[in-house]
Amino acid sequence: MRIGLIGLGRIGAFHADTLAALDRVDELVVTDPVPSAVEAVSARIPGVRVVADPEALLDAGVDGVVIAAATGAHADLLLASAGRGLPTFCEKPIAGTADEAVSVRDRLAGNDTPVQIGYPRRFDPAFVAARDAVRAGELGRVHTVRSTTMDPAPPPAAYLAVSGGLFRDCSVHDFDALRWVTGREAVSVVAVGAVDPDAPSGLYADHGDWSSASVLVTFDDGTIGVVSNTRTNARGYDVRLEVHGVQDSVAAGLDDGLPLRPTQPGVSWPAGPPHTFFMDRLAEAFRRELTTFCAVAAGETPSPCTVQDAMGTAWIAEAATVSATEGRPVRIDEVAR
Q: Which class would CATH give 2-119+287-306?
C-alpha cells in the first residue's frame, strides 16, 4: 500500500515514523514546504519518496492520504483529497473554524470516500477498555466522567497563533473521549480559563487564549463531564480518564508513567519515569489508529471517526470557547445553530 503524508511538522514527522513501520505500507510519499522538515524525515526513513507539493502527492498514485499539515490548511486539503476519491485521514480539527468545518461537512455530503478524523485516544488500549466497560453495563448508570490533558510545556508561539485556542486544540481530545466513552452527546458547557502569570507577555492574551482551563459538560442523559487542561505541567505529559458509575468506577492512564508524585507516606507508585509527551504516552494508540486507517483505505472497515462524528466534538469546543470568553453557560444548540 502506498500512503501519502502531507505535513512533516511535530505530529507529521511522528506519523511518518509510525507509517513507515507498518507492515502493509510499502511506500511512503511525503511533502512539506519546509525543506529542513523534509530533509530530517528523508534522512531518518530509508526509501521515503518526496514530492513538491500536495497537488503532486495527490497525483502520485497513493492509496490513501494522511493530512498532518497546519490546522488552517485542513479544510482545503481534506476537500481536495476526498474530492479525488482518495481515502483520507485528517488530524483534528476538521478545519480552523466551526464555519469552515460545517462547510466541509456539507460539501462532502453524498461523497462516499471514507474520511477518518484523528482522535488517538479512541485507540488507546486503556481508553478502549473503559469504553467497553461502560457499554457492557459494568458500571451501571454513569454519573461522572473526568478527562485530563496536561502538556509538559507550551508549543511554540507560532503554533499557538494558529491553533484556534486551548479548547479547540487541546481540550478537544478530552471532549471527544467523553463523547466516545459514554456514547452520549453534550447539551451544555461551562468553561473557565486562566493565563499563567509567568508566561511571556502576550503569548496567550494576544490570541484570546488561555494556558489552563476547566470545563463542565452536561450530557443528554444527565452525565456530568469534567475536563482539566494546562499547557504547563513540568512533571510530564498527563493524559487520564475516570468513569464513575453507580455500581463501579474505572480509570485509564494510571500506569507507572503517570506524572504525579504521591505524598502518602510509604507509597512508591507510580514507579516512573513520567511520560514526557504524546510520543511515548500514546505511541501505541497512534500505531493502532494509523493501522486502522490503512484498513479503511483498503475498504476493509468503515471510518471509526467520520466528519459528522467529529462535528459533535467541535461543537463542545466552540461552546467552551464562548463560555470562557463571555463568562456564562453555553448550550450546544446555541453554537451549532
A: alpha beta
